[in-house]
Design a protein that fits this description.
Structural class: alpha/beta
Number of strands: 10
Helix content: 25-40%
Strand content: 5-15%
Length: about 325
């Protein structure tokens, strides 16, 4: 039976120390303070009344947001504008990605009331654009694809004018099954993050496969030609700019329409350290390169995240 533990946040050790102690390439904990951030890394503190009101609605409907669970630096800005990226299927992930602050462990059973709760919260908040993402659920036979569909259908029923973007996991080894299920209720935007370059996958995304992620985007686009596709990359973990450009070319050649590029920030001393803070000029260079490839929309800047101003990006507006 599903148990409501919305008020019980996962132990901090499950987000870092216990999460990263069994991955192929070990993370050596940093002693003392994390790397000092340069002046161009700035975020608004989530303290105003609109932020508190939004958090209240989320708690009342037993929901999670990736904004909170993944410690997104833009939470203050996005919450103050009344937008959020909802994280379905709980707050415990079956993967151990050492860049991510979402907790790892054995997840609970799926909550059958979650689709209705999600739709009701979106209706109360009067959101015109929502992003729905999830933890990895490798314990589910369909990797959670059916639950995505249930959420999309319920939101469309309750909020017919709301546009829906889904940010999905890689559906490990079940891509065809998951995509067949998603045909029942495709979103307005389909997003799957590659995160990094293939050379760093063992280090950054243990359990994932670069080519499989590209294939997921490509196959979805082949079956849903009218739905915009999207992916995101993070910099500062040892990649070279030329390697990032090759990934952008791969994305464009595999049916990706939009891309986001941002700076990786280390959540705790037990997560992967930042190897360098990429200068805004380099983000600008990559943004111009991506535009030259023909992407529908590009957001490339240090504080950009996959869901950052997703509504504006989907409408074709420039994000800076």
């Amino acid at each position: 039976m599903y148990q409501d533990n919305i008020h019980k946040q996962p132990d901090q050790d499950k987000r870092g120390k216990l999460k990263t102690n069994k991955i192929p390439i070990k993370v050596i904990p940093i002693e003392g303070k994390l790397a000092r951030k340069p002046k161009w890394i700035k975020a608004k503190a989530p303290t105003d009344e609109s932020v508190l009101n939004l958090k209240k609605v989320i708690r009342e409907h037993k929901l999670h947001t990736v904004c909170e669970e993944a410690s997104c630096p833009n939470i203050g800005e996005c919450f103050s504008h009344g937008t959020a990226t909802f994280m379905i299927m709980g707050d415990i992930c079956t993967r151990r990605c050492p860049f991510c602050d979402v907790a790892h462990g054995k997840p609970q059973m799926l909550d059958p009331e979650e689709p209705a709760n999600l739709a009701h919260a979106i209706k109360i908040m009067n959101l015109k654009y929502v992003v729905i993402t999830s933890v990895d659920r490798d314990d589910q036979l369909d990797r959670g694809a059916g639950h995505f569909v249930a959420c999309i259908e319920k939101v469309r029923e309750e909020c017919p004018t709301t546009r829906i973007e889904i940010l999905v996991p890689d559906f490990r080894s079940k891509i065809d099954i998951a995509l067949d299920i998603l045909k029942k209720a495709p979103p307005d935007v389909f997003n799957h993050n590659l995160e990094s370059i293939p050379r760093l996958y063992e280090k950054i995304r243990p359990g994932a496969n670069y080519q499989a992620s590209l294939t997921l985007i490509k196959k979805f686009k082949q079956h849903n030609k009218s739905v915009a596709t999207k992916s995101g990359l993070m910099l500062g973990l040892g990649e070279e700019i030329d390697e990032v450009k090759l990934v952008l070319e791969d994305l464009k050649n595999n049916g990706c329409d939009m891309v986001t590029i941002g700076q990786y920030l280390q959540p705790s001393r037990y997560h992967l350290p930042v190897e360098r803070f990429v200068h805004p000029d380099e983000f600008s260079e990559l943004g111009k390169f991506a535009e030259s490839l023909g992407f529908m929309n590009v957001a490339s800047a240090p504080m950009v995240r996959s869901s950052y101003h997703a509504d504006l990006q989907a409408s074709g507006k420039t994000i800076s």
